[in-house]
Design brief:
The protein is α+β, with helices and mostly antiparallel strands. The protein has 13 helices and 19 strands. The longest helix has 17 residues. The protein binds zinc ion.
Amino acid sequence: MLTTLYNPMRMVADRIAAYYVSHPDLLENLLVRLGAQNVKHRWGHSIECTCPLHGGDNPRGFTLYYDRGNPVWRCFTDTCGKGGLSWLLMKKYPSAGYDQAVVSLGRFCGITVDGSVMHVTKKAIDEETLEVVKRRLGIVTANRQQSIMRFPEEMVVSSVKDLYSPAAAEYLRYLTSPASERIGSGLKCRQIPLHILQQFQIGFVPRMRWVWWNPQEKKDIGWFDDRISFPWRYVDGTLMGFAGRHTMNVDHQKYKTLNGTGRALMLWGLGDRKCLAEIQRTGVVHLVEGYTDVMRGHEHGCHNIAAVGGTELTPEQIKLLMQVGVRCAVTYLDGDGPGRNASESIGRQLFNRIRVMEAVPPADKDPGELTDYREFWTPIVQAKPFTPSRSLR
Ligand SMILES: [Zn+2]
């Protein structure tokens, strides 16, 4: 299938730039091709290298970063200036006009442009994406930072679309129907409003949609087959992976995390813009256990809320909370035994650094189950200062 887009050259250029952004390896290749050295990707953030325009040997003399999703470069060591990708090519090859620069940019990443018509094979884009995913899935390194990657936005777009397809009807019912109802496998429905699902880009991944090569079995095997997908975003919005939840076979690996997802570096919910804005306004964060808890908070107007996804915080998560300006944490973990223990251990991790308040939901309830506004807020209003007196159960 050939997608033909007839557009003024600038729109073509934007489209190509977006393609580069979703394929960071191509951006690195482009810089190398233009003569940059020491190309280093600070994942999801920027690329640093020597300046491909004036040369030079400062490995941090040139930066390419993302400004609201657009790649922007800047030379710090000479007078090369700054600009977008097309401008970079025009500076490098002064005889090239704008159109020619865009055509070359396209050619470098496999997109053919003739005149102001761009031909992109849908298949080529899909395969490239899959290729990136496969490669990353195979990477296992001792250094946790190195195995973290930036995932292509296409994965969010397609999974969100699939949640509203007929094949996912039961999953959508599980997520949105009243808490008094149950789905076929016996699970209680979650009663999450549609607009909240959309805000967090919750999706669905059908069988064999995301696959990778398994050398033992010598075939593509599925990942996330038939799962609800929760995108993980860093505080700057970078897509850093996915968690997927089964609802049918409830005992077998309820949650899976896509390899390469930087879970230990993030708290789910902090990537939401409303969340960050509210933390910066108030200095307060509410720490809950899981995805539903975060979404319930947003439904009830509690935006400064993030999920720890475990019983302890990692050093990176603590550092991040400090960096975004948290001065007080309200722990609001599940009402059951494990939830109480998590509340104690997280409280102990934080109380020497910042103020910690402890909110306790009604016995054996999760904040995510509190569909009633007043029921959700009452434990927060009644939260008490944390004191590490209790022993762990
Ligand atoms: Zn320069």
